[in-house]
Design a protein that fits this description.
279 residues; alpha+beta; six-stranded mixed β-sheet; four-stranded antiparallel β-sheet; 10 helices
């Protein structure tokens, strides 16, 4: 019987403490999806809300593979991966935690002057500050600072020092961005004499919706921003003249949800776009 890899030993200890874990390969990256799940053919990723949604036996879908189940961690499907793994990561949100990732000395200095003290874990260039409580994740909330919690993973680098304290409002506020200024939009004109709105031309409207759907569907990065931009483009053209129907919004929301956006994200993006345009 071969010896248990040290990374698996660490993973089992963390899982036993209720922290969902996953293996990392070289470059501090999760292992790629298996053949069944490659390019999300399994359908799990677009609708995934909790770890392991697609029920795949392999460690697929990055953060969503994180688990506390020792039977999964010790399963044959994971055995080869553990032999190749170079580190252990965990899903902070799944453990009810938030990690403020401070990437360099200046970021650490800012945290010490701004954030309530909590457990600190040294990293290669900075520190991880760990708080009790989950929140949405966001990168680049300020220079050298990322927030890792829900739908994210953080590398396990040891227990650290200090006592974990409650997630403060000042950390939650890091991901709240100032609303963009409302730009005046020229309203669509309706021909004099009660003529029909020119946007009601079926071909014109259909082409606009199809282009927005395609823009969302082909997005490979910055999906949130792409969805918002597509919604904004549709509303800027058709939002004031009554052209849009429930069928149109359903198609747009469906395209966004197929890329991993939740219904709430879609609703928030649609509302934000309307607010931006003063609708």
């Amino acid at each position: 019987m071969s010896a248990m890899p040290e990374v698996l030993r660490s993973a089992l200890a963390l899982a036993g403490a209720g922290v969902p874990v996953l293996p990392l390969r070289a470059g501090k990256l999760p292992f790629g999806n298996c053949r069944t799940c490659a390019k999300n053919r399994c359908g799990g990723r677009p609708n995934m809300k909790t770890p392991g949604y697609c029920r795949c036996a392999a460690p697929c879908h990055a953060w969503a593979a994180a688990t506390i189940d020792p039977h999964i961690l010790n399963s044959p499907a994971w055995a080869t991966v553990w032999r190749e793994a170079v580190a252990v990561a965990y899903h902070p949100g799944g453990a009810g935690l938030t990690v403020v990732d401070l990437d360099h000395a200046a970021a650490v200095e800012w945290a010490r002057a701004t954030l309530p003290p909590t457990r600190a874990v040294p990293t290669t260039r900075g520190e991880h500050w760990i708080y009790r409580g989950a929140m949405p994740s966001a990168n680049g909330v300020r220079p050298g600072v990322d927030v890792k919690s829900s739908m994210s993973y953080a590398r396990y680098l040891g227990p650290g020092t200090g006592t974990i304290t409650a997630l403060p409002d000042v950390v939650r506020a890091l991901i709240v961005r100032e609303p963009a200024p409302v730009r005046p939009v020229r309203a669509a004109t309706v021909p004099a004499g009660g003529g029909r709105c020119p946007h009601r031309t079926p071909v014109y409207l259909e082409r606009g919706i199809a282009m927005a759907v395609q823009r969302i569907t082909t997005a490979t990065t910055t999906v949130h921003a792409t969805v918002f931009g597509a919604f904004l483009a549709v509303l800027s053209t058709h939002g004031r003249c009554g052209c849009l129907t429930e069928d149109h919004t359903t198609r747009l929301f469906a395209a966004a949800q197929a890329k991993g956006e939740t219904l709430r994200h879609c609703t928030d993006a649609w509302t934000s776009a309307r607010t931006r345009l003063g609708l």
